[in-house]
Design brief:
Beta-Lactamase; Heat Shock Protein 90; 5-stranded mixed sheet; 6-stranded antiparallel sheet; 3 domains; 44% helix; alpha+beta; 8 helices
Length: 362
């Protein structure tokens, strides 16, 4: 065939996408034909292939306006149908001389090439969509990072003001009661800064590799745990908390992270237990393991909830006065993993207990 083309055919346009011209037909890529003058326009409507060996001997096309206008005697055109069923256009060929095209071999070959073109067009479309989505995700990521950076800055400013004010208050007021309150403020400010850092790390997607820890050999975890309880009791003086510590062996751990984990567990125990309930805390270290158990009475946690309890943004049944993002247990679990340990939960109708287990590094 002297001329062939891949044509984009719409309701109002015939456009050449690619051409092969050996008869000086005169069309180049981007060239157009008047839609109504083409047989491709008819194929657009019925989606069937058209193959003509010799126009002068074909009773259906001998008087057709298209061969008369463009002066061809042989013609073949195959519809290009995309994966979603959309009609794209045609793969067509013409020649001023008769040719044997209306046979299974030639028609099958054109069908195969039309399908390959459709596959290629679908792939290009998917690639275009992927690139657009990637660009949107990139822009969203940049906005998210900017938001996180601004949020972190805005949170740290008032927190630093609180910490600095506590230091100033400690210098100008030496009363024991004041000094105790100042210490609580300072310690709480320090841990709040750590919480902000965790939130920013999580929000910016940097927790995929786990939370980084800075171990201190022979960390005084008993002091760390007492400090957290002291802070919680200062906020909730009417709540009953019992402590049973048996720390026989030193533990290599990140005290700040363990305090963060313990604060999450203790806060949850207070939130999910009746006001008059007693929260039992047990901490034991021996030559093999450090365990910390926080137990409270309250509603039993269902098995389905336990399965997703340590996932981010997952929470148990929430009462109207209970607020939070559902990150506390997830971050606590990540802290346990970072120490080579684990955080587990058991729940019955009488009691719910969260247990941290860490290996003692010798």
């Amino acid at each position: 065939m002297g001329f062939s083309a891949v044509a984009r055919v719409t309701t109002d346009k015939w456009l050449a996408c690619a051409v092969h011209d050996e008869i000086n037909f005169g069309l180049v890529p981007g060239g157009e034909l008047k839609l109504e003058t083409t047989i491709c326009n008819e194929i657009r409507q019925h989606h069937e292939a058209v193959a003509i060996d010799h126009v002068a001997e074909d009773e259906n096309f001998v008087n057709h306006h298209t061969p008369l206008m463009y002066g061809f005697q042989s013609y073949i055109s195959m519809p290009i149908i995309l994966k979603d069923g959309t009609f794209f256009g045609t793969l067509c060929a013409i020649d001023p001389k008769p040719a044997k095209v209306n046979n299974p071999t030639t028609v099958g070959m054109f069908k195969m090439f039309a399908d390959l073109i459709a596959f290629h067009l679908d792939a290009l479309e998917q690639l275009s969509i992927s690139n657009k989505n990637l660009q949107i995700e990139k822009e969203t990521s940049e906005l998210r990072e900017q938001f996180i950076a601004i949020l972190g800055h805005d949170l740290r400013n008032p927190l630093n003001a609180v910490a600095n004010s506590a230091q100033l208050l400690a210098r100008i007021n030496l009363e024991d009661r004041t000094q105790k309150l100042v210490k609580i403020i300072k310690d709480s400010s320090f841990r709040m800064n750590g919480l902000i850092e965790n939130m920013l790390d999580f929000a910016s997607g940097r927790l995929g590799g786990g939370i980084a820890i800075a171990r201190t050999p022979d960390e005084d975890l008993e002091h760390v745990l007492f400090q957290v309880v002291e802070e919680i009791q200062a906020i909730s003086p009417d709540r009953k908390i019992t402590m049973n510590f048996d720390m026989l062996h030193p533990v290599s751990a990140d005290g700040k992270r363990i305090a963060q984990l313990f604060s999450n567990l203790l806060g949850n125990a207070l939130n999910y237990s009746p006001p008059g309930a007693v929260i039992d805390i047990t901490a034991i270290s021996n030559t093999e393991e450090f365990t910390l158990c926080v137990a409270n009475p309250g509603k039993q946690i269902s098995e389905s909830t336990i399965e997703r309890l340590f996932q981010p943004f997952s929470r148990g049944e929430v009462e109207p006065n209970q607020k939070g993002l559902g990150l506390g247990l997830y971050i606590s679990s990540e802290i346990a993993k970072a120490h080579g340990g684990s955080l587990a939960v058991s729940s019955t109708a009488e009691q719910t207990c969260f247990t941290l287990s860490l290996p003692v590094i010798k």
